[in-house]
Amino acid sequence: MDLRPLSATVCLLCCTLAGAQDEPVAPDRPAPNREETRDPDAALMMADEMPGFPGGEEELARFINAEIKYPREAIKRDIEGVVHLSFIVEKDGSITEPTILRTIGGGCSEEALRVVRAMPRWNPGRQNGEVVRARCNLPIRFSLVDRKR
C-alpha cells in the first residue's frame, strides 16, 4: 500500500492549521530571575549549601543514637521502621516547625520530634553567599535489633 498520498495530506493539513493561527506568537523573553521573585523569608527546599549538623552526618547519627529512647509501646508491639520528619533550619541555626511526614506508630513519632527539638543549632544554609532559612528532611530509624546490641 502506497502511503505517499496520506503523508502528503497529513503534511498539508498540519501546514494549513499552523498558518491559520490568529494570535501572534510572543517573542522570546528571558525567564524571570527566581531570586528576584523569591520571598526572602521563605524557607528554601534546595540551597547552594544546605544546612548541616555540627560535626557532620556522623555526629548527627551519634547524637540521635545517644538521645533516642525507644518508646515502651513500640517495644511491646514490636514496632520497627523509619519516622520521616521535616523541619526548618533558621538563619541562626535553630530548628523550627518540626513536622512528621511519615509515622510508624507506637509513640515513635513523638520520640522523633523530641529528639529533633533537643538538637543543638545547625550550621545554616546559604544561597548566593547569603545565610537563608532552609527546610530539611530527616529519617530516624527505630530498630529493636540495634537496641539489643
Explain what this protein looks like in three dimensions.
- The chain is α+β, with helices and mostly antiparallel strands.
- The protein has one domain: TonB (TolA/TonB C-terminal domain, 2-Layer Sandwich), CATH 3.30.2420.10.
- Helices cover about 35% and strands about 20% of the residues.
- The chain has a 3-stranded antiparallel beta sheet with strand order 2-1-5, with helices on one face. A two-stranded antiparallel ribbon has the order 3-4.
- Strand 1 (about 80-90) and strand 2 form a beta hairpin.
- The longest helix has 16 residues, at about 5-20.
- The model is unreliable at about 1-25 (pLDDT under 50).
